Amino acid sequence: MVNMTASRQQLIRLLADGEFHSGEALGATLGVSRMAVSKQIKVLETIGLDVFKVTGKGYKLSAPLQLLDAELITAGSGVTVESHQVLGSTNQHLLDKAALLHKGHSCFAEYQTAGRGRRGKKWESPYGAHLYTSTYWSLDAGIQAASGLSLVIGIAVARTLTDLGIANTQLKWPNDVYVDGKKIAGVLVEIIATAGGECHLVIGLGLNVNMPLQAGLEIDQAWTDINQQLPHAIDRNALASRYLTHLIKVLTDFESFGFGHFVEEWNCCDAFRDSPVVLTIGNNKKYGIAKGIDHSGALLLEMDGVISPYVGGEVSLRHAET
């Protein structure tokens, strides 16, 4: 695991403008030798930064790096935001202090050393490339009121992408967002239920913005990012603000109206609707036709002419081989 020292974080800020900086100038600013700068550059490359070195010019990033600004995101969304250069996991960061937080409190990280997805999978988190964010929420009605929540978060992401002009945004049960059949985002909702009945939630999102080449090669499924979908670069702070605005709206509506309020919208975006699929539950596989979701958020699967509901958890849904 890379130790993101203060010196390395300062080096990233110096290179963020996308211009050339000589090793000598960088060393003078950091108070280290040119050789030490070279070693630090190699470390930065291991966390997903693409650094060019040109003799006589020095070092530069392949493209300018826009760092996240908590004040800008708060101003744009009205949500209390904290932003970090590096965290183990944004979800874990909020889980560790959930009892102290107010609804909507969100955190972002430029880099996660232990980012995670559903079913214990690692979430690739190259530095400054995407949005890695988590938001705290609570439900007074308890854990039973959280049914379908991950599906609602997908709707917030889909609305955000639609606002940007990205067409054909799709939702994959129970917690992924696709564009044209390729994954662009994943949601991880983690729950702490208390004895008194209150339910604490941490809602994590990984949204692909500008995937570095090497990181993309390490992903074992079809993926896309925002930069591939738009003709211009996206402002990550504006993107973060837009997402949080939609997120708070859907969470508030979810509390007021329940999941049934969102079923029609979710089904309209269903990536697998009326397609042959395989549903994996533990070691068991069920083959059928996906028929959308019901008012509890359960997947509707048609097998031999009979439609049955299946809830989330440790499950996996994929297109069936034809």
Automatic annotation (TrEMBL):
- Keywords for the protein's UniProt record, in alphabetical order: ATP-binding, Biotin, DNA-binding, Ligase, Nucleotide-binding, Repressor, Transcription, Transcription regulation
Q: Which reaction does it catalyse?
A: biotin + L-lysyl-[protein] + ATP = N(6)-biotinyl-L-lysyl-[protein] + AMP + diphosphate + H(+)
EC supergroup of this enzyme: ligase
- Mention any Pfam family matching this sequence: HTH_11
Which GO molecular function entries does the Swiss-Prot or TrEMBL record give? ATP binding; biotin--[biotin carboxyl-carrier protein] ligase activity; DNA binding
Q: Which residues form the signal peptide?
A: none
**GO cellular component, as recorded:** cytoplasm
Report the transmembrane regions from the record: none
Q: Tell me which residues form the DNA-binding region.
A: 23-42
- For this protein, the Enzyme Commission number is 6.3.4.15
Residue numbers binding biotin: S89, T90, N91, Q112, R116, G117, R118, K183
Q: Which SUPFAM superfamilies match?
A: C-terminal domain of transcriptional repressors (SSF50037), Class II aaRS and biotin synthetases (SSF55681), Winged helix' DNA-binding domain (SSF46785)
**Residues annotated as domain BPL/LPL catalytic:** 66-255
Entries under InterPro entries matching the protein: aa-tRNA-synth_II/BPL/LPL, Bifunct_BirA, Biotin_CoA_COase_ligase, BPL_C, BPL_LPL_catalytic, HTH_11, Transcriptional_repressor_C, WH-like_DNA-bd_sf
Task: Report any one BP term from Gene Ontology.
Answer: regulation of DNA-templated transcription
Its function, per the record, reads: Acts both as a biotin--[acetyl-CoA-carboxylase] ligase and a biotin-operon repressor. In the presence of ATP, BirA activates biotin to form the BirA-biotinyl-5'-adenylate (BirA-bio-5'-AMP or holoBirA) complex. HoloBirA can either transfer the biotinyl moiety to the biotin carboxyl carrier protein (BCCP) subunit of acetyl-CoA carboxylase, or bind to the biotin operator site and inhibit transcription of the operon.
Family, per entry: Belongs to the biotin--protein ligase family.
Q: What HAMAP family has UniProt attached to this entry?
A: Bifunct_BirA (MF_00978)
Its name, as the record gives it, is Bifunctional ligase/repressor BirA
Q: Which organism is it from?
A: Moritella yayanosii
- Gene name for this UniProt entry: birA
